[in-house]
Structures
1.
Amino acid sequence: MRLVRARVTNYKSIDDSSWVSIDNVTSLVGKNESGKTAFLQALRRLNPVPGSDAEFDLKDYPRKGYVRYKRTHKDTPATVVRCEFELSDEEVAGIEASYGPDALSSRLVIAAKGYDNQLRWEMDVDDHALVQHAVRDAGLPNEIVTLAKSIDTVEKLEEMLRSLPERPATVDALLTDIAMRFRKETEQQIANEHLNRLMPKFVYFDDYSTMRGRISVQDLAQRRSGFGRLDDADRTFLSLLSMAGADLEDLENEPSYEYLKAELESASIGISDEIFAFWNQNSELRVEFDLSAANPQDAPPLNSGTILHVRIWNNRHRVSVPFDERSKGFVWFFSFLSYFSTLEDEVDGDLILLLDEPGLNLHAMAQADFLKFIDERLAPKHSVVYTTHSPFMINLDQLSRVRTVQDMDERGTVISEDTLRNDRETVFPLQVALGSQLARTLFLAPHCLMVNAASDLIYLQVLGEMASSRGLTRLDPRWVVIPVGGVDNLPTFVSLLGESYVSVAVLMDVTPTNKEKVERYSQNGEGPSRNPIKWVEVTRIRDADIEDLFESNFYLSLVNQIYGQELPAPLTLKTISGSNPRIVQRISDYFRNEDICGGRFDPYRPAAHLLQRHSEIRERIDDTTINEVGSLFQRINSLLPTNGTSSTETLQSIAKAPGLIAAG
């Protein structure tokens, strides 16, 4: 049974999260207090592992409607969480063995739970298939089987069988079987016999689940016996004990302590070995255990009884420190793996791991290690949903698994797959992650093509595919296209390029001042690989942007489609008439003069629209544009070194060639 989507309503900051699709690994990205934790906590209570919080409390209902709901909650308990699962072939076969082929119209089933804390299931049951299965297996006479062919409910079948003037023994046996098999609603029967057992257990783990460095053995034993409450940190330590095959009573029995200590350290070595398969920060750590009498001067409950000390030994510095006071990243990783490893051994069935800000104290590179741990160790066996606001916990090779979480006015927490419709703070981790990847790309690739903005990159991609499909030249894949954010940033980006660069070209409208700065930088021998920066013209018109490759009315149609609600009327060439040959500049002037969208035109929006709808829109791009694109790519690719020629010689020869210095 695989979780495919989930929805949380009426819980803390969440009025309605909307349906959230769940992949094998799902990342919930958002700023603090956006509702990420509330979403995980609601999921956890649907079917938690033993010992975890299982019930919803009325106090968690959203405050703005709490008083009104409190008066009616007993009669109409609100639903909090709904999870849609997909049944496997084997699970469907198990249900059909009891209820017949096609008993379920769909293999998608929904489990729901609310403030009444009753688990409910929703499924599409084919009543006609159920009836026909019961009739086929009953050995009824043919004339009765014929009568039953049109019956589509168990109640109608029972009514027909009882109305027969003569009832063979097989009819009475079927009536008895129906009364036993369908003593409850069919959906409830299927849930009781199959779905409740098949549903995965939800495991929640956060920073508060980290194992403590000092534990009062007697206090923990009392609370586990019912005289108090266990928290997640307690359960983590009890998991480690379970892995060692021990119990709390063994810790109080001094003669057996040395044996227990050996078992605990053996368990910790096994966990540490698994960690170090993914942990590249420091391999000189190990976990140690010791017992002592309590210090009466310590705060309760550590001031009496026997205290177990968990410590981390650092072999590099040959010192040990309390477990919860040093190396917090390693402590978190060790605690999580202790808890998870025990559950994996003890819980029968699948697990869905809900990790709240995992690895918050991990170094950026260690967070990358943990992402690898998720993909290679956890995801092959279990679903993982984790929250983060760290850019280093986002796998840029798997952006499809990112969901953004935003707390919106009047709507509460909303979770979405659409990153374009979120505020800057919500998507900031994504932006930083992309920026980090961009920076790494800069230092690895030898051929850099600098463009003005991300919209340019989109146009190069879409138009390049179209040119290639018509047999024209497309951009050589050796080029790394870098949006630098405007010509003012060009000198800074050029100065950051390292000696590994061979070819550097600029495809943008460049002011004479910035062009002079960069050329002076190159001529002084300070530029990348001591090779000159090359300028590439967009069109034969000297003052042009990449948008000017398009036929003017086509580009205006993109702007009108994406800005339709903000514009007083669709733009025309007459509307944006002006002396500037650059269409983007004329549109920008119009937006500013008419105070549309705060006076600012964003060229990225038409580009993004073309990217999203290019399969529909591409046929409207004329042949002239595609031919000019092919010519443009030929000029850009000519700046790359050719086989048998050194890069320096190639660039020097190109520098002397006419017609390559241009404004755009």
Note: The CA atoms of residues 77 and 641 lie 71 Å apart.
2.
Amino acid sequence: MDPGSRAFGGIDWLVVALYAAAVIGIGFYFSRRQKTTEDYFLAGRNKRPFLAGLASFAAIFTLLSYIANPGELIQHGPVLIGMSLVALPINYFLVGWLMIPIIMRLPITSAYELLEARLGRAVRLTGSFTFICVRLVWMALLLFTASVVLINVMGWPHGVFPWIELSIGIVTTLYTFVGGIDAVMVTSVMQFFVLLVGALLTLVSITLRTGGVAGWWPHHWQPYWAPQPFFSLDPHVRVTVVMTLVSSIVFTICVAGSDQVQVQRYLTTRNAATARRSYLLNNIAIGSTTFILGIVGVALLGYYTQNPGAIPPHLSLAKNGDAFFPYYISHNLPPGLAGLVVAGLMGTAFIAVGSAINSIATVISKDFIDTLRSGPQRSEAVKVRTARLLAIGIGAVIVVLSMVVALVPGNLIEVQVKTIHLFICPMFGLFFLAMFVPFATPFGAIAGAVYSLAMAVGVAYWDVLTGEPRLSFQWMTASALVVSLTTGTLFSLLPTRGRSRAALTGYAGLVALPLAGAIVWVCRQ
């Protein structure tokens, strides 16, 4: 058994409670400053690059990444983490110098206002609805993961699972309800340093226990790691170097250019140069944290390889990589420090879910209520009150959805791709057509999004649909993006502008034939 192992005690619980109280207190503090929806959604558009950049980082780098990165290295090896770091400079150039200047030239609050200006209201509502689907599924997965982490590290029975989800959901919704984007961004910065401290404390602890870095540094490829070649055309190979780089770049660009959570962070700054600096800081934060978490995974692997008696009977390095980081934190760090780090883990759920709740409330308020509502203009007080009520409703939906997310198999990284990434490329395709294809049409954009979603579902659930061996999750994002841009551009060549509803229905039937044929073929495999 692990000589340093202990139970999660009363001091740890006190720290967790104080942390939760501080998060809610920050929300109430900022609630006094909000007079308009501009304050609630965009923090008055005057945030500094440092705060906006770290807030953007926290919106992406959540509990899922914090647990999944060490878990991926422990269970499958270093290729995925290493190549995601290589992709960061490429991502910065493409997003910072191509996308951000276009977005910042527009006087928008919702990213999807851009779609209406270029392609009409129907495309805007399609993009808004797709974003809502992305973030609802993402938040449900995040809430589920936070609850599972607590159950595993505390050894609680699974019967308390719904109550944990409900508690986390209430705390997150409450501070978002009162504090708006200001509260979300400030707690994001606080959370960044808590996460960093947790990772560094784990490294120090393992190093002291093993007698130095040489005690846990690996000297060979683990025998249970699957081969991870430089490149392979075989779509059944789980991870390759090239596809890791490609999928990382594609996903980052798609999120940065179309996701309201990210676009909203740009819009809280003064201009394109400030937004670009905030994105640079965001990339630096992601890169440094990814590197540190990769080293944490190496240290955990070395520690538990040398001390197999410290591995609980229900866990295995080859099958449960995601469980070892939170387990080590809760059972091996000193009292109080363990509570702080576990509180930080839960805080990532608070902040990330809070960011998404705020962004979804922004989209519903701007893209649906304000766009579709008739009658006199609502006052700013009424708009802020509506936004806060939306936050409560969204929080309730997330709690319910989190109870069904567990049905998707795989480790955390695979589950993220098979759920959240399904909608990313279809959504980005709408923005690409709006910004870079002059002849794009609303019909072509929506039809391309439908084809892209079908492609993503086909790759992600190939084994479920056909009974054949599972395809690599890394092929899903790239193939869905190619289909989105290709079909959206081709379908825009059809003469659909200004046509009657009957004519559009006929074109839709024509466009649906190849897709229907592909679906029938897949289901017969």
Note: Residues 36-45 have pLDDT under 50 and may be disordered.
